[in-house]
Specification:
Blueprint lengths: L37 H8 L17 H10 L7 H12 L15 H13 L2 H5 L1 H35 L9 H44 L13 H29 L1 H31 L5 E5 L2 E2 L11 E4 L2 E4 L1 H6 L11 H5 L2 E5 L54 H8 L8 H4 L7 H30 L2 H4 L12 H5 L4 H33 L18 H17 L2 H29 L13 H18 L1 H21 L8 H17 L13 E4 L12 H9 L6 E8 L2 H21 L5 E7 L2 H11 L9 E4 L11 H16 L3 E3 L18 E6 L6 H10 L8 E8 L5 H15 L4 E6 L7 H16 L7 H16 L14 E2 L39 E2 L1 E2 L27 H20 L5 E4 L8 H8 L9 H23 L7 H27 L1 E2 L2 E2 L3 H20 L6 H26 L7 H18 L16 H23 L6 H28 L7 H6 L3 H5 L9 H30 L8 H22 L2 H4 L3 H4 L10 H9 L11 H30 L27 H15 L1
Parallel strand pairs: 6-7, 6-9, 7-8, 9-10, 11-12, 11-17, 12-13
Antiparallel strand pairs: 1-2, 1-5, 3-4, 14-16, 15-17, 18-19
Helix pairs in contact: 4-9, 4-14, 6-12, 6-14, 6-19, 6-20, 7-8, 7-17, 7-18, 7-19, 7-21, 8-17, 8-18, 9-17, 12-19, 12-20, 17-18, 19-20, 19-21, 19-22, 20-21, 25-26, 26-30, 29-30, 29-31, 30-32, 33-34, 33-35, 33-38, 34-35, 34-36, 35-36, 35-37, 36-47, 37-43, 37-47, 38-39, 39-42, 42-43, 43-47
């Protein structure tokens, strides 16, 4: 089903009662508009079987009506009749006049002959012969061919336009304007009008030239006779001005009195033109039979002025007496033969040549090439010898024919082109034609073909018939003052003279008739407001005012007075018009608009572009400065119409190309995010509407206008509550209101109205879908909600909080003006003042951009800029100021700089009180009957309020002062509380700093000079007698409140006199749900560290205290020492590590923040100490172990801090920082504590069955809980899951391998309990460095096997070697279990890093390898953050770079641990630390009270040895 959704037909367009703007428009037969009543409609459609479509008849007419309108459609001609009808419609009903007859003109009378009459003109008769003589036949033929080709191509384009549908009455102006739009239409229309007007001036000047030079020279008021050079030229121009003004006045009077007489005389003028041309051709034919006698007198090779001689001879013989002639007397000082004569006259002979030798004379060869002359040069004949003394100055030059102007090729083009204009005479009469679509192409092209043939043949014939010196004689001074072309005509030169005179008179009248009507048509179109007065005329429609303006402009051409100077001027305007005709056809063809279906098929866009190029080229060939002036005039008109002209929608091609260009530009914007240099605020302004659909905050658009010095996109949006079907009218009204306000505030942009079931969703939709493609907003401006504390406004404030959150999620800037009504309007001016920028956090440059943009506007232009930055206790204020000045210098911003120091101070009671109020409000919410969603929003509004400015009521401190502050995502309290910038009126817009990293920013208007600095607390308040409820306050909220109060005090003090304050502030909490539940004392288990991390903590606890304790109790006489000293050292190390690690990693605001994660990290530090303890087990006293722990923990903490902070490595399982460090620190200690006697063995260095079982239990505990050890600090989720799996598989592999290798290596093929106790754990260490990476289960299994093998071989071969050769007595073999396997693990981790890629890991690749994530500012980071919320910027490292940092971490860790271990060993050798002797090593008796059966295992062992010896 096809539903025709046409628009309502408005009166004035296509209806008989067309009033509109009063301009003649083409009526449309396609929509049947009627204003009949419902009763009339019923009668109209009754009985016609059309009841089904009765309601659609207003917009969708019946087919019969449509066909009837099409059949009866006719265009009114451009003349007085349609103007009379328009006047009748404007002034009301008048007595009926005679019915207008249908147009009956055909192709010949309607198009062909009018074009012939307008094309043939004054240039053909007055300048064509001169052009051929100066430019030569070849040069002139090229000029004629170029000009005729231009008009032919233009005629082809015009024919296509004219045959595309019904041709509107109005001619070329209507064709161009309806094809290119009102701007181009108006510009071209004015150019066409000026061209026609200056053409009238040219024709009048030609008429006067013929009259004064060739018909009645005696009529000259300023006598030329006797004058020479400049004086003669000035006299001629003055005569032209005087007579031209008289003739112009007479012609204007004739046009004013009765234009019908001009139209009736048109055929007479046309007959004169045709008769003159026929006479020329007849003269050419006659020259072939009997050439006329037109002698030209030459002195040497110079042409002599005919009035200077009577006989072409120096002397003559009369009665055998030599008598001097008039020519002699012209060059000599007396008539006697002995007179002193001009030297050139004496040296050269007199020659008489025929001026018109005939077409068969062969003179064509001599005239083939050009002979360009400088002004004042003498016309000379080619081929004749002339004797000239170069040392003698020329005299008597006035006796020769001189060049009146300097001639060159481009001048000839400019002078000649008007002779080919007039091709639009047929299209101008389109309303009078019987079939315009058929007549215009045929008639125009035929006329151009005819005239082009005549012109090109005339060029050849003139060159073949007329002597060159005669051709170059512009005014016929050498042929008795005759018109040169007239000398060729037959039967008499007067045929040409009289014919050309009447022809120019007629052409001038036609120009003065057509130009005012063209101006009237433009005026009535209403596209140029200041020309509307010229649309009025007499009662019969005659354009009186337009005629007056036309005559005035024409007078300018008359004052110029030179036909050669005026011709290039009108050439420019006509070429401009023709160029746009070609452009219109080319655009319509290329755009392939559906309504472009010309009946004339012989067109092509390439021909149109060629014609346009020729027009443009000819403009600059004729005169480049005239071309620039003409284009400047057209451009000014275009911009004027664009700026303040009436809006017209004509379905033009320019709008089509605008749509195509817009589509192309939008597609280009989709290719990638804009570069930082191209970033500018693209603002979405969210406004609210009142009940009448009027904007409640109009000053928002004023601020938008002031910010738009950076141009860019502006969208003004609002939301209407309801359903689309029910509320479309309200939405349309709101849209109109937005458009009107945008026009008033001069905000260039788009309006957008969304209908939604609630305003919150509507605003969200605007933020999400505003813009198109890559042209989207990056900044949102919304006003601070008024009266937000009132119960009825709570929903409005909650909606505002959601806007803040949504802009944060969407990475958009947020500008929140508060009390927007106090902002300055666009008409206000600040003559002085400051714009203060409080640069607290860096936002990528937005904070610096805003004052720059504002200062481009006249409101803020005279305000100076000040930059304030805040320094903490440990900042160098002087250096900070220097750095800021340097930064501003590079930004090219002039501003004063001040660094404000904010020192730490005690938190005031007022801060506690305000925080308590916030906490109490969150508890009250539990008693409110709110939905879960509403409660979360309400909770968040309170949270955001606590993060913003908090003001205290103090009306006495309020004074009037405007100011702006800028804050990001901050909810401020109302007027009666203390705020960051204390004021009566305030606002806090937020703005992001860059496209990739949104931060805070905003603008606040205030009216207060004073500020409540938080110092006026109640007297007698004792800060030490704190209220009991204060003890339960969240300290984070207290610190936030404290910072807000301190910052408020500083800003209020420094910027109280500022006109504008821009401020960065923090954004809302990223975790919306968690934050809300925190304030309602609700916590999800996985959001709490107890539930999330405590299970891992308990597992590591078991490993530390049970696993390591039992494992180290393998000596039969040192079981107490192994377990108890492990207990002692572990407890001490954990406490010490909490402090040391807390200082380096968990210290904020001078305090160490304690949590489960801190305890886990401390236990890892404890594990380092316990592993090192294994190297010196049984050889050190408890005091030495405590000192060792005391020194090792700081060394480990510093190493860990340095490696993680500067090298930034991946070491999830601690292979580098735990195992390698602990191993080589312990080896360093035991190297220094080397005991040579122990190399030979020690009697107590043995195990027992019970001790091995206990040690094996420790192994089992470690084996079971090792996955928790490796995964405790890995990334929650998939990374932690992989860590557990890989560790378990590695342990399984090492266990199986350990059993196999133990049996293989043992000579008896039995298992060794020592291998089971240690080697089975190697797999957990080996997978540590790559435990959370995608190394595959098989790789984890292989790593377990390799680690187990290395560890087994180390115990068997490497440990004895280290003891005997390197003096390293590794008591527990930590180098095998932790050193070798740690190195293997690091190698595997490096390989995993090198092979890892985003294709394998997906977006989580940058979570695991976070240092390989894109850097801050990289567009890819924004894309990744959209996929992984909370992803932090990385360092942009490559795989190779990360691998190198891993290697550096390995070597630095080994080096630092070894050195630290050896230094610690030196300290442990101090005698006062009670080191045991070699004999007392591995014996608990030194340190413990032992039971009696302590030595029973030893005796039993000795008895067994004796029995074996006896046996």
């Amino acid at each position: 089903m096809l539903n025709n959704m046409s628009t309502d037909c408005e009166e004035g367009e296509g209806s008989p009662n067309n009033q509109g703007d009063g301009n003649p428009k083409e009526s449309s037969p396609f929509i049947n508009c009627t204003t009949s009543s419902d009763v009339e409609k019923n009668q109209q459609y009754d009985g016609k079987n059309m009841a089904l479509f009765e309601e659609e008849m207003d917009t969708s007419p019946m087919v019969s009506s449509l066909l009837s309108s099409l059949a009866n459609y006719s265009n009114l001609p451009t003349g007085s009749k349609e103007h009379e009808e328009a006047e009748n419609n404007e002034e009301g009903a008048r007595p009926s006049k005679k019915p207008i007859q249908a147009p009956q003109l055909g192709t010949l009378m309607g198009v062909y002959l009018p074009c012939i009459q307008n094309i043939f003109g004054v240039i053909l008769f007055l300048r064509m012969t001169w052009m051929v003589g100066v430019g030569g036949v070849l040069g002139s033929f090229i000029i004629v061919f170029m000009c005729c080709s231009t008009t032919m191509l233009t005629a082809i384009s015009m024919s296509a336009i004219a045959t595309n549908g019904v041709v509107p009455a109005g001619g070329s102006y209507y064709m161009i304007s309806r094809s290119l739009g009102p701007e181009f239409g108006g510009a071209v229309g004015i150019c066409f009008y000026l061209g026609t007007t200056f053409a009238g001036a040219m024709y009048i000047l030609g008429c006067i030239e013929i009259l004064l030079i060739y018909i009645v020279p005696q009529a000259a008021i300023f006598k030329i006779k006797g004058l020479e050079g400049v004086e003669a030229e000035a006299a001629l121009l003055n005569n032209m001005r005087l007579y031209g003004t008289l003739v112009l006045s007479l012609m204007a009077l004739v046009v004013f009195v009765g234009v019908k007489y001009v139209n009736k005389l048109a055929l007479v003028f046309l007959a004169c033109v045709i008769l003159s041309i026929v006479a020329v051709y007849a003269g050419v034919i006659k020259t072939a039979i009997d050439p006329p006698v037109f002698p030209v007198c030459l002195l040497g090779n110079r042409t002599v002025v005919s009035k200077g001689y009577d006989i072409c001879a120096k002397v003559i013989e009369i009665d055998n007496e030599t008598v001097t002639t008039k020519l002699w007397r012209s060059f000599c000082d007396s008539e006697y033969l002995n007179a002193t004569c001009d030297e050139y006259f004496v040296n050269n002979n007199i020659t008489e040549v025929q001026g018109i030798p005939g077409v068969t004379s062969g003179i064509l060869a001599e005239n083939l090439f050009g002979n360009y002359l400088e002004k004042g040069m003498i016309l000379e004949k080619r081929g004749l010898v002339s004797e000239v003394d170069p040392d003698t100055s020329a005299t008597s030059t006035n006796r020769f024919v001189l060049a009146d102007i300097t001639s060159f090729f481009t001048l000839l083009v400019g002078i000649y082109f008007p002779s080919v204009t007039g091709i639009m005479a047929g299209s101008n009469r389109s309303g009078d034609l019987r079939d315009a679509q058929k007549s215009i192409p045929i008639g125009t092209i035929a006329a151009i073909t005819t005239t082009s043939t005549v012109y090109m043949s005339c060029v050849v014939l003139f060159g073949a018939c007329i002597e060159g010196v005669v051709l170059r004689d512009k005014f016929g001074e050498g042929v008795n003052g005759n018109l040169v072309i007239g000398t060729l005509a037959w039967p008499s030169p007067w045929v040409i003279v009289i014919g050309s005179f009447f022809s120019t008179c007629g052409a001038g009248l036609q120009s003065l008739t057509g130009a005012p009507r063209l101006l009237q048509a433009i005026s009535r179109d209403g596209i140029i407001p200041f020309l509307r007065v010229f649309g009025h005329g007499k009662a019969n429609g005659e354009p009186t005012w337009a005629l007056l303006l036309t005559a005035s402009i024409c007078e300018i051409g008359i004052i110029i007075a030179s036909l050669d100077a005026v011709a290039p001027i009108l050439s420019m305007f006509f070429l401009m018009c023709y160029m746009f005709v070609n452009l219109a056809c080319a655009l319509q063809t290329l755009l392939r608009t559906p309504n472009w279906r010309p009946r004339f098929k012989f067109y092509h866009w390439a021909l149109s572009f060629l014609g346009m190029s020729l027009c443009l080229s000819l403009m600059f060939i004729c005169s480049w400065y005239y071309a620039i002036v003409a284009m400047g005039i057209a451009t000014c008109i275009y911009k004027y119409i664009e700026f303040c002209g009436a809006e017209k929608e004509w379905g033009d091609g320019i709008r089509g190309i605008s749509l195509s260009a817009a589509r192309f530009a939008l597609m280009r914007l989709e290719e990638g995010p804009p570069h930082t240099k191209n970033w500018r605020p693209q603002i979405l302004v969210l406004v609210s509407m009142d009940g009448e659909q009027n904007v409640e905050q109009p000053r928002l658009l004023s601020l938008t206008n002031q910010l738009k010095a950076g141009k860019g996109l502006t969208i003004v949006g609002t939301s209407v509550q309801g359903k689309f079907l029910d509320n479309y009218t309200e939405a349309h009204k709101a849209d109109q209101s937005l458009r009107k306000l945008m026009e008033t505030e001069r905000v260039k942009g788009f309006s957008q109205v969304v209908i939604s079931s609630n305003l919150r969703d509507g605003t969200s939709h605007l933020i999400q879908v505003g813009g198109l493609g890559g042209l989207k907003h990056n900044t949102v401006m919304v006003s601070w909600p008024r009266n937000w504390k009132q119960p009825e406004c709570h929903q409005q404030f909650r909606d505002f909080i959601e806007v803040v959150r949504e802009t944060t999620v969407a990475s958009l800037a947020l500008l929140v003006p508060k009390n927007i009504s106090s902002y300055p309007s666009n008409g206000e001016r600040f003559t002085e003042g400051h714009i203060d920028v409080w640069w607290i956090v860096h936002d990528g440059g937005m904070l610096m951009l805003l004052p720059f943009l504002l200062r481009q506007h006249k409101v803020w232009r005279k305000c100076k800029m000040r930059i304030f930055t805040v320094a903490q206790m440990d900042d160098n204020s002087i250096q900070m100021k220097k750095d800021v000045i340097t930064f501003l210098y590079h930004l090219r911003i002039d501003a004063e700089v001040e660094v404000v120091e904010m020192h730490d101070s005690d938190i005031s009671a007022y801060t506690y009180e305000k925080t308590l109020i916030m906490e109490q409000r969150s508890q009250i919410l539990k008693q409110m009957h709110l939905t879960k969603n509403e409660m979360e929003r309400e909770i968040q509004s309170i949270t955001d309020s606590s993060r913003g400015s908090i003001r205290r009521k103090k009306p006495s401190a309020l004074r009037s002062q405007p100011s702006i502050e800028e804050g990001a995502r901050v909810a401020q309290q109302p007027e009666e509380e203390v705020q960051l910038i204390h004021s009566k009126n305030a606002s806090t817009p937020a703005s992001p700093t860059s496209l990739t990293a949104p931060a805070g920013g905003g603008a606040t208007w205030t009216d207060s000079k004073g500020a409540d600095k938080g110092k006026n607390l109640e007297a007698g308040k004792d800060l030490f007698s704190m209220k009991p409820e204060w003890e339960n306050l969240n300290q984070i909220d207290v610190r936030r409140m404290h910072t807000a109060l301190r910052l408020n005090e500083v800003i209020a003090k420094k910027s109280k006199e500022a006109k504008l304050v821009l401020l960065n502030m923090p954004g809302p909490p990223k975790n919306r749900v968690a934050d809300a539940r925190f304030h309602t004392n609700e916590t999800r288990p996985m959001d709490n560290a107890v539930y999330r991390d405590y299970p891992f903590f308990t597992d590591v606890q078991v490993m530390i205290f049970i696993g390591f304790g039992c494992l180290l109790a393998f000596f039969r006489l040192y079981g107490f020492g192994g377990m108890v000293f492990n207990f002692l050292v572990a407890t001490f190390s954990i406490q010490w590590a909490i402090l040391v690690q807390g200082y380096f990693q968990f210290s904020h605001d001078g305090k160490i923040h304690l949590g489960v994660i801190n305890l886990i990290n401390a236990e890892f530090a404890c594990a380092v100490v316990l592993i090192s303890f294994g190297a010196v087990l049984g050889k050190t006293s408890p005091l030495q172990l405590l000192v060792m722990a005391l020194l090792e923990v700081p060394v480990f903490a510093v190493t860990e801090w340095a490696v993680l902070k500067y090298l930034k490595i991946n070491d999830a399982g601690g292979s580098i920082l735990i195992h390698l460090f602990a191993c080589y620190f312990g080896l360093g200690v035991t190297f220094v504590l080397y005991r040579p006697r122990l190399n030979e063995g020690h009697t107590k260095e043995s195990t027992s069955y019970q001790s091995d079982i206990l040690s094996l239990m420790g192994t089992l505990f470690l084996w079971v809980f090792w996955p928790s050890f490796n995964s405790a600090l890995t990334l929650k989720g998939d990374g932690q899951h992989r860590a557990i799996l890989h560790t378990f598989l590695g342990l399984c592999a090492s266990t199986i391998t350990a059993f196999a290798l133990s049996a293989m290596i043992n000579k008896k093929g039995k298992l060794s309990i020592a291998d089971i106790q240690n080697v089975t754990l190697a797999g957990g260490v080996t997978v540590g460095a790559s435990v959370d990476m995608m190394i595959s289960p098989a790789a984890a299994y292989v790593l377990g096997m390799v680690g187990c093998t290395a560890c087994m071989l180390g115990y068997k071969f490497l440990s004895p070697l280290l003891a005997h050769r390197f003096k390293i007595q590794d008591q527990c073999g930590i180098h095998n279990l932790h050193g070798l396997t740690g190195l293997i693990s690091c190698t595997a981790g490096i390989c995993a890093i090198m092979t890892a890629s985003e294709e394998v890991y997906g977006p989580s690749f940058y979570e695991i390898f976070n240092h390989r994530a894109p850097e801050e500012g990289d567009p890819k980071l924004l894309e990744l953050q959209a996929l992984i919320p909370g992803l932090q910027p990385g360092l942009g490292r490559t795989a190779g770079e990360q691998a190198l940092f891993q290697v550096a971490a390995i070597f630095s860790t080994i080096g630092l641990s070894a050195v630290g271990g050896m230094l610690t060993g030196v300290v442990l050798k101090i005698p006062y630390l009670a080191s045991p002797t070699d004999d007392l090593c591995f014996d608990d008796q030194v340190y413990f009270d032992l039971p009696l059966e302590h030595y029973s295992p030893l005796k039993l062992s000795q008895d067994i040895d004796k029995e074996e010896t006896v046996a």
